[in-house]
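OP here, attaching both records as promised.
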Amino acid sequence: MNYNEIGKTGMKVSQLSFGASSLGGVFHSVKEADALEAVFMAVELGMNFIDVSPYYGHYKAETVLGKALKEIPRGKYYLSTKVGRYGKDGVNTWDYSAKRAKESVYESMERLNVDHIDLINVHDIEFQAGLPGGLQKVCDETLPALCELRDEGVVSHVGITDLQPENIRWVIGHVPAGTVEATLCFCHYSLNDELLNEYFDFFEQHNVGIINASPLSMGLLSTRGVPDWHPAPKALVEACQKAVAHCNDKGYPIEKLAIQYAISSPRIATTLFSSANPANVEKNWHYALEPIDWELVGEVQKIIGNQMRVRWKNS
């Protein structure tokens, strides 16, 4: 497994890393014992970057992850969490104010049983785009608050996340150099969408490290089938299902090809996947160690055809 630096942060992370959203039962119910074992498995195998958010499971993912982290030496992993998206009693909430951002960091540390966050992110900034102040509030309020915590040593590095890379680029272009050190963008470097190729130069020119997420495109590239809640348009879903069937005919699970493709760019520091199943964690790790079948990649992308880069809105 290769280890790459996230931008200029000094954090050298495994090219495949652990996203903890599943620990919050975001996609389906999970057994806590399995969730804890999934974290232990990831770290034991060498995944040294763990990403979470208070939004995942409305604080549950951080709480469960915190139980696991109590048992893992702090030097074994880098920890990333977020501010801005929250929820309670099944209702999603958003708050990108400076006050709430600072409060959220300390609350996360308590849930996670740590006294320091390696990377703190503003979560899914597109939602602030639709709130009073728009994305400018992220520039003027949220990020400066996190940078103050960075200056105080509470966090080491500051980043932003979004489904829409153009929002990330806009914010980076409207804050002082060095404010944003990393970005997490999901579903845009996968078998059906490699839009991030168009943003690599910009991010690198601004010394912003690139974190990729959701190599299976939130379940589009899955033999289990596309989840009912998936926001992708019907034509894209159908194209991906044809690609899944083609891979099955080849005896090459599309999940394997998708993970291998997602980690294939040397310009991406790491790709996050999420699972609360330790067996899946181990399987994905071994997928990442095997060479990719580039001929099959070409066949799959030809099947997806004009649905390549077809997008959807976050929810």
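Record two, same layout:
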Amino acid sequence: MMNETIINAKKAVRSLIGLSDAKRTELLLKLADAISSSADGLLAANALDLASMDPANPLYDRLKLTGDRLDGIAADMRKVAALPSPLGRVLAERTLPNGLKLRKVSVPFGVIGVVYEARPNVTFDVFSLCFRSGNVTLLKGGRDADNSNRAAVALIKRVLAAEGIDTDAVNLLPATHEAVGELLGATGYVDLVIPRGSRRLIDFVRDNAKVPCIETGAGVVNTYFDACGDLQKGIRIVTNGKTRRVSVCNALDCLIVHSSRLADLPELVGGMPQVTLYADDRAFAALEGRFPSGKLLHADSDSFGTEFMDYKMAVRTVDSLDEAIAHIDRYGSGHSEAIVTEDKASAARFQAEIDAACVYVNAPTSFTDGAQFGLGAEIGISTQKLGARGPMGLEEITSYKWLIEGEGQTRP
């Protein structure tokens, strides 16, 4: 028998259709205010989750909520509320020779399920985007953040109820493996499922989903410091890309450096002595004695192509732009890649030939984020090619339908 929560989510779809855009906006603004006024309760629930995780775990930072982070979540929700409605947009319009009038119009998917791990901010981000785009939100969080997620969903439901809106517009499934299976098999009830988390989670959802799935999140991210790279720009870009937040999917995993710039490598990585470097032989020789010895190790076969999500980074030496692109082709995940160069031809080639959702020139991959892209927030970073790609905002979580008007025409 289908999970009752999933059935209720499907029933709630029609209740959202009649809501005006003004009502959706008003609800999100009131919820943003409620997040700030309910901060103590949300932080207390989060503290219960944090107590069960080792602070040394890199995921601890992703799990942790603070007053400032809650303020940031509320601010992002207000940004989503301020964006133009993605619904009812006329994407195409034409009149056929027989007089039939066709319009292609944007509409909600219906029920969007999101499977995610220890990131309680996702609960609010996903709801804000789904609600603004007319979609019902069906959440499946991880055990690590269960108290935080339950407190967040309870708050959302209270605000929905106060505004007279169906509280089944958002639901949280149990933090169990069985609930994942029910969600992935809910054909006819769930219109789209999006996984956010580790490579293992994403692979599991993709391989087992019977409902449509958008692959997101896993990021093996590289930055190439070219022969013509500016050293001061490179220092800022590499340090920010690696150390801003190591546990997120846009964090730098491998620095690729042109062999002619090995003399600059110690300075290029000198601002992050807390990072363990897995360097190939030439990079190791350039760094030996000029980087903390306990943090400098020889790279092995597993060093490249690993999403570290920790204060760890691989270093690879290449002799050409071609070799750098070949390395990314082999080890990248299609998420975000960057080049540091002052040579316009090299920059143009890198942009044209790198196969990734986001390709940067002289900027860190840490900018791959829905809020940074002006989307208000994101429901995920899509690394696939069919449909949405890169940060997914309001437009990416709508579908469309054709509206046809006639005056009694019949087909011969």
